[in-house]
Here is the input.
Amino acid sequence: MAKRDYYDVLGVPKDASEQDIKKAYRRQAMKYHPDRNPDDAEAEKKFKEASEAAEILTNAEKRGSYDQFGHAAFEGGAGAFHAGSGNFSSIFEDVFGDIFSSGGRGGGRSQVHRGSDLKYVLDLSLEEAVRGTDTKIKIPTLVECMECLGSGAKKGTSPIDCVQCAGQGQVTARQGFFQIQQTCPRCRGAGKMISDPCAKCRGQGRVEERKTLLVKVPPGVDTGNRIPLAGQGEAGTNGGPAGDLYVQINVRDHEIFTRDGEHLYCEVPISFADAAIGGELEVPTLDGRVKLKIPPETQTGKLFRLRGKGVNMAQIRRGGLGDLYCQVMLETPVNLSKKQKELLQEFDGESSEKQSPRRATWFDSVKSFIDSLAD
Here is the structure.
């Protein structure tokens, strides 16, 4: 069954603020929380659905990707959300703090932390953005220490349960079905203590590393588009999931073309003779050169449309193939010889007002304006 729209799940408009989204999630979570609805599968389903929606919409990067690509931004390897994962606990704790715990449902847990999300700006040429490309990037990040496998303890040893919270990471006081919690001051919420830290990561469980990743850029991307790579951010702590990496696209300026969505534009200089009597020019496209017919009496600034020679954005959003617009610009000749000047003067002497209608109309308008001032 198709997933419901996240905004509909929480009952908020698409321009809702982060605070409004959290308030809406709080209402849903309080209503459907499993502690208040024991053995109610439908309530648990709605609780997880609301948590999933809130986790995406309260994260600016993920919300931007969702608004742009919908659920497709988080399918498969592109940021999939799984209820019950670190993402779920992250949003729940962010909204409710220490009100609820899992202690009433089978024991406590050590405090885990999801790794931070990362952003990488990927510069592309216009050709790469239009056609799509596969490119490798190197990012500095924190990864799990392979010496201690993220435990922070020296190889051959293990962290021990905190003696104060018995490995829970929190100390609690129960009030009805609520449990008021606070972070254990001894282990600072980890639930574990390291007596003999790993020499490689110094007990942190993570080390700095430069990762090489392959980014598949779909055809049609433009500046500002983001490509989410799930789990490629910083490693989590205490068994928490890794964050995500967001590759933000920046398309460099092109020496010939400018872009507006799916359409491309370029200026084509033409001579006085081609503009007056017509001609045929070769103009560039991203697929090679094509012929452009210039009809007689073409004025400077006229736009010619070449259908299907723009950008195909079908894989990015709804829409087909764009067009290329060529704007002809009349180029005034320079470095004229004496003979050329004489020929132009002769031509100008034989020209009539009918051959320059806009100039004649303009001078008539100027004359009428000056006469009105004199009156």
Observations:
- The chain has nine helices and 15 strands.
